[in-house]
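Support request, please re-run this one:
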Amino acid sequence: MALVDLSVRDLLSAFSSSAPTPGGGSASALAAATGASLLIMVASLPKTRTGAEDERLALASAAKTLTAIRSQLTDAIDADTAAYDQVVAAYKLPKGTPEERQARSAAIQRGLRAATDVPLEVMRAAGASLREAQAVEAHGHSGAKSDVGVAVALLEAGIAGARLNVEINLAGLADAAFVKSAREEVAALTATGSGRPAFRPFP
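Re-run finished. Output below.
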């Protein structure tokens, strides 16, 4: 059964099991998806900050964008586990002959690339959610400030966790051009906070 189809209790049990998956990558995607969900909730509340129509329109736009992003992040929960399972399977391939070693090495590289691509996409999606958080923060009901704050914290945790997974997998990749490009993107996503100023829910 897919992780996203488990009950919360069973999902937590899966995370705490001795199996290597699901691990930090799936947890990061889950954190970010939860953050995006909270932003959608605030954007969908019947009350806006002042009740103005332009606020409702801005929030509706943010909710629509966030819904699509949440779908990406939800898919990443299982995709990350599948990618790392691919890495684990590759390391178990036979290596007794030169041909087997070559095939094993190629499989490991494919697995590591997949295990890098998924958390990198989580970073992008969480960063996009943080940009939408600006509109939710500006126009959402002031009584939901804490919900926006929690959403932002979860999205930032998702980015931080995904970054750890990107970096550990990049260390094993032989494609120097991809490694350089990915590291530059990771640095940009984290150094700029995805273009969003620091959130201050209670001035």
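The mean pLDDT is 94. The chain is about 75% helix and 0% strand.
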